[in-house]
Amino acid sequence: MNSLMKLFVSLSLLFFTSLIVGEINGVEGSHKHHHHHHLKGLIPKRLFVFGDSYVDVGNTKKSPNVTAWKVPYGITFPGKPAGRSSDGLVSTDVLAKLMGIKTPVPYIRKDDVGKERLKYGMNFAVGGTGVLVTGVVINTLNPNMTNQIDFFQKLIGNIYSPSDLSSSVALVSVSGNDYFDYIYKNKLTGIFEFIPKVVKQTEVNLRRIHALGVKKIAIPNLQPLGCLPSFSSLKDPSSPKCIDEVNKVAIYHNTLLQKLVAKLNKETKRSTFVTIDLFNAFLTIIKNKGVPGSTTFETPLTYCCKGGCGSVDKNGEKKYTVCDDPKSALFWDEIHPSQEGWKSVYSVLGKDITAALIKP
């Protein structure tokens, strides 16, 4: 169950970050320099991150069961495990870079850094988080979206002022872990009755973050879950294939999410809420075996770190293998994209993300 939950969390996180980063990337890559600087000045310079392992940059405590703190995680960046579920950067890092800011600090490190470092926002995301699901309590952070928003609320008027919030973006990673947990326990039986419950609680969370004063909220939709190696490699690991039945879960979730965002924007009478289309970004990369003209993933559905990534036997012998070049893989492990995978997702999302982040 642990690995399935981790997978879901990762997925959720990935989506959100990817969408935002892609939009920003479009601005960064613009050839019209005047236009480029004009847009760059309008992109918010503070980022608050809520979610799971796709966006967590170190809120999980080092412990024997947290793989993000084990070798070979972090081999590409920073060269050692750093609490990120990847060989290097994750979605949050790429997005922050595109926004022209430093990666927001993990909430658990807020008292260890200077005030200067807090001005870029903060990351409340914890690997394993769900919308309804709560995992183990890690380091005072309970992986549940409600708790993360509680921590955020306590900082308002303390570390952050209302005007800080009004010029910020919130990245809100949704629900992957809820579905992994459900499928692990029930397979796909009854899941289409469960999905609206997850989206309903997502609505509560989004309304709450907006009511606290954040004026722009980005919500990644779900990537094609059935294409994650944990599913696509089930039948024949040597010839992975996306599982349509599982992808339908993501499609239904995304349809409900899109309707929710349209409803919320109609109420606020502006484009406060933005979805980031991770689903189509992933499918585009899988279909084209990379990003035409830049990255190539010869076998996009295979993953780099196999065999229980990070696990060792009782003698300390590793039980996993790592591919020769993590850059050649879209996925780092069964659930999480590689650093190159994240960068590719953003690059596919392109200019849409930056356009969406600019205040209406």
Automatic annotation (TrEMBL):
Gene3D superfamilies: SGNH hydrolase
GO biological process, one term: lipid catabolic process
GO molecular function, one term: hydrolase activity, acting on ester bonds
Pfam families, per database record: Lipase_GDSL
Keyword line: Hydrolase, Lipid degradation, Lipid metabolism, Signal
Signal sequence bounds: 1-22
Domain of life of the source: Eukaryota
CDD domains: SGNH_plant_lipase_like
Family: Belongs to the 'GDSL' lipolytic enzyme family.
PANTHER family noted in UniProt: (RAPE) HYPOTHETICAL PROTEIN, OSJNBB0059K02.9 PROTEIN
Protein name, per record: SGNH hydrolase-type esterase domain-containing protein
Organism, scientific name: Microthlaspi erraticum
